[in-house]
Amino acid sequence: MLRTHTCGQLRKTDVGTEVTLCGWVESKRDHGGAVFIDLRDRYGLTQVVVGPPEADAAMIDQAGRVSTESVILIRGNVADRLEGKTNKKLPTGDIEVRSVHFEILNTCETPPFTPSQSDLPGEDLRLKYRFLDLRRPEMLRAMVLRSSIVKAMRDYFAEHDFIDVETPILGRSTPEGARDYLVPSRVHPSKFYALPQSPQLYKQILMVAGFDRYIQVARCFRDEDLRADRQPEFTQLDLEMSFVDSDDVIGLIDGLVAKTAKEILGKEVQLPLPRITYEEAMRRFGHDAPDLRFDMEIVDITSVAAKTEFRVFRGTADAGNFVRGIPVKNAATKYSRRQIDELTEYVKNDFGAKGLAWFRVEDDGTLWSPISKNLEPEHLEEIKTLMAGEPGDLLMFLADTWETTCKGLSGLRRRLASELGLIDPEALNCSWVTEFPMFDKDEETGSWNAMHHPFTAPLASDLELLKDDPSKCRAQAYDLVINGSEAGGGTIRIHDPATQSVVFDLLGIDAETAEDRFGFLLNALKYGAPPHGGIALGIDRWVMLFAGLDNIREVIAFPKTQKAADLMTEAPGGVDKAQLEELFLRTAKVPK
RNA sequence: GGCGCGGUAGCUCAAUUGGUUAGAGCCCCGGACUGUCGAUCCGGAGGUUGCGGGUUCGAGUCCCGUCCGCGUCGCCA
Question: Which residues take part in binding L-aspartate (predicted)?
Fold first, then answer.
């Protein structure tokens, strides 16, 4: 090692020893006769003094000219700082290193921004110069946190006898799910590999192989549009177990949540984690990953709406749709008409709602609203009672289809909670959502889609519904929800060929297609497949949530932009014509 | 693909109703300085206002298009 210590290491007890430090010039204070340099590495900051008597004029001049973010090596003596000149902000603030040897290992051009500057530059610049951005303590902290979480997970599963197995990145395209990233084959003209959306099929085959307990920290790829919490390539802690039911998997992950919360955040999590069914989640919160850090539960007032003469309410109820709302406590004075208009535009634009009805609970307990004249006092009173409205509350309602009321009210709920500051930033609220539907209906084609994937087992009690009413058939599926974000999801798999073929039928996957796309799995399942199930945890999201951040790019070293570009490497980029020819590829013109 | 926000000096931002030579702080360059830690002081450089078009006597400002970044809906088994 060039150095004897790191920049975060030296203390008063080291005074008198000669040390060598290496690091980056965080800042420089040049007094002419002496130069003070804050030397930074991953571990901290140490003040270096280049001045007499240790340093001669040439060394002082050289130190005075060194540019910020240059990499230097200092040999010198650890010394007490002068009386009253200590820096309480630094762990190393009691000492300084008096340079006897000063060496520039590498210079730094004037950087577009520095890691220590208080005004964070725009994200595009940070991404282009990610190597500078990653020098920032916040980024370093996120990467260290990520490393700790992954290590805690690996340790936990190793303790539970899991085997870490790597599965291929170059696989084959499967029919359902997200859009694939494709890789052309050179030796098989006009054929393509697909990058894995998850190692789903492989891990099931590992169960057939008798591995019993498998994990992998697996990179996954999905060519879909991005979000603040979504990247085109992301990392899952993928897991599969044999001879288990839902409770076994959930119980195992409960233990992981408690362990990581304790080890990483020092937080106690009560086990077992609460579980609610999908049906309950949609009814109470309008979302399958409800944010349980605050209340504002959805209330159904369709029964009252049906009794009114108000056309919007009555018509909705008569059409078999729903009038549902949320009580917004103490918000009446916090939202002006104009702000409520904005919320109305929000539910219209983002969720296709037809409008937003709202009432203010007045001091005398009556409901005031632009539409209250359309409603009888007794009905207003009923609405207030159902919503448990108290003076100062705002009551907001959507009259629409089940799906639209869910989406709109869930969106409102999250937005209002955030705006009203109802969310404790320190909270780590973990829960399970279970009993997802097996299928949802494709509105365009009217056909059934697998809500999770086509190998998901139905609840044993719902087996008959597979034939009678697929829409009511529930799956042995479970999602882990942390702070209103889907942090993991898994299922128990079908291991019985008869059930599998019924499900394929429902999904419109004929025998030939099934054979073509995942015949290898179906084949494997014929050779002694144990009952099995598993889960995949979104590592990027875990880290984001544990870090209290709201953006996944902040916990990924080299993330991509909303258009899936890497601003640093400028990927994706063009390729040579020769490369295309070798792959038997030709690009088509982009339509204007 | 839809909706919304943004793009002005290397960086963070300002610029009145469309009006003179587009400003400030930081950074950078030169100089002074032995106790700073956001060093200080003196001086200086730095602009295709993302790009293209239009309206106007005159556009950073208004209009149209486009590119890029962000948020969100669709999408994400």
Answer: 176, 222, 452, 493
In a domain, A580, yes or no: no
Is residue A222 a part of any domain in this protein?
yes
- Structural domain of A179: 140-276+431-562
B2: residue with closest CA to C1': A349
Same domain, A487 and A460: yes
DSSP conformation letters of A529-575: PPPEEEEEEEHHHHHHHHTT-S-GGGGSSS---TTS-BTTTTBS---
Alpha helices, H only, A38-136: 57-65, 123-128, 130-133
Mean local confidence (pLDDT), A358-375: 94
**Pair A54, A78 in one domain:** yes
pLDDT of res. A591: 66
Nearest nucleotide to the CA of A27, by C1', is: B37
CA distance A274 to A170: 38
Do residue A200 and residue A298 come from a single domain?
no
CA distance A297 to A413: 8
pTM for the structure as a whole: 0.95
Annotated ligand binding at A364? The verdict is no
Residues A70 and A337: their CA atoms lie apart, in Å, by 56
> What is the ipTM for the molecules in this complex?
0.94
Mean pLDDT of A327-356: 93
pLDDT at residue A47 greater than cutoff 70: yes
- Residues A253, A210: one domain? yes
Which of the nucleotides lies closest to A561 (Cα–C1')? B69
Nucleotides of chain B touched by protein CB (<7 A): 1-3, 10-13, 25-29, 32-40, 68-77
Condensed to tens digits (0 to 9), the pLDDT of residues A458-470 reads: 999 999 998 889 9
d(CA A203, CA A389): 51
What pLDDT, on the 0 to 100 scale, is given for residue A223? 96
C1’ B30 / CA A31, Å: 16
CATH number, domain containing residue A98 = 2.40.50.140
Number of domains comprising chain A: 3
Q: A493 near A533, Cβ under 8 Å?
A: yes
